[in-house]
Amino acid sequence: MNHIPVLIIGGGAAGMAAALAAAKRLSELKPDINPGEYITLLERESAPGGVLRQCIHHGFGLTRFSSDLTGVEYMRRFSEPFLTSGIRFRPDTSALHIFPDRTVSVSGLHTGRARLAFDHLILASGCYERSFWSLTPAGTRPSGIYAAGEAQYLINCCHKSIGEQAVVLGSGDMGQILARRMVLEGKKVLAVIEKNPVCGGLRKNQQECLEKYQIPVLLSSTVLAVHGESRITGVTVQNLQTQEDTFLPCDTLISAVGLIPEQRILDRSLTKDRLPEWISLCGNCHHVHKIVDSVTLQAEEAGREAVEKTLKDY
User: Fold this and answer.
1) Residue that finishes a domain, picked among 213, 228, 257
2) Is 224 found in the same domain as 79?
């Protein structure tokens, strides 16, 4: 069984930042140790970057780099030094389960099924989207309904058209950014629907996405029912204050109803009380951050601490 002093799961912004900070701290404390022998990063995709690879809009790096970067540009601030750092990188490798004996089962395109042992684990697995269907809407389950991240990937990375007339559920930053993206793609956004009496997300995004492009927002409202057989043909929107129902014809529904920290690969025995000291959570896996700058800063601290802890027994 392979043994790894510092194992990082997730090659997004948090994972890369943690790995680079760990390598730097290792070179300061033990310059004779090769970072590739000490630090390993697992990533399920073929390249690092995570969700930033599909974020072509600006608004990243204002705090960290004092620059208005796209998500892709922000990613490259970390991916380029990471790929030349000597840190062992295992792409196309999914972590399946983390066990209490400090091992993790993985499945890789090139390595198959394996079990890795480690001294310290940094979980930087990001977050996953809350399903639209968890809201238990009435009606049918036709095609044309997308999670926000799925829609963003199809539009920005695959250059696909996902529909002509869209309704966006959720006015957080992701919902606002997707609404603007649809307008820029030449599509019509009938409304952004928000259950709260005020719009979510950053004020900056409200101005640059909703107000600038005159996208309607329906507050204190939700999608009550979905209509359509093979393809969605519309939604029933209910005002939660007046209980009034309105039908909106559409061929696309984009759901941006929340993010959940991705901790599902942790064995249940590890999450009953406090996590053991040999596990660190960082980035959106720890809690959902408002900006990626705070993700990378937290991750760098986790990387440094992991090296300091493990070197005591190395």
Assistant:
1) 257
2) no
Q: How many CB atoms lie within 10 A of CB 107?
A: 14
Query: What is the residue range of 249's domain?
Result: 131-257
User: Is the domain of 121 the same as that of 270?
Assistant: yes
| Total number of domains in the chain | 2
Q: What is the tens place of the pLDDT at every residue in 84-123?
A: 999 999 999 999 999 999 999 999 988 899 999 999 999 9
pLDDT in tens, 148-178: 999 999 999 999 999 999 999 999 999 999 9
Cβ contact 167:191 at 8 Å: yes
pLDDT range class, residue 313, cuts 50, 70, 90: confident
d(CA 138, CA 140): 7
Determine the distance from the C-alpha atom of residue 98 to the mean position of all C-alpha atoms in its chain, rounded to a whole number.
Answer: 20
Contact (Cβ atoms closer than 8 angstroms) between residue 47 and residue 89: no
Q: How far out from the chain centre does Cα 171 lie?
A: 17
What's the token pair of residue 22?
A: 């760990």
Output the six-digit token pair for 255: 């759901």
* Residues 179 and 210 sit within 8 Å (Cβ to Cβ): yes
Regarding whether 226 and 209 lie in a shared domain, the answer is yes
Among 178, 179, 177, 169, CA closest to 133: 169
Q: Name the 3-class secondary structure at 175.
A: helix
Structure tokens at 93: 């490798």
Do 198 and 284 belong together in one domain?
A: no
Q: Which residues pair with 145 in a beta bridge?
A: 253
CATH of the domain at 60: 3.50.50.60
Average pLDDT over residues 250-268: 95
Q: Give the pLDDT confidence of 31-41 residue by residue, as tens digits.
A: 999 999 999 99
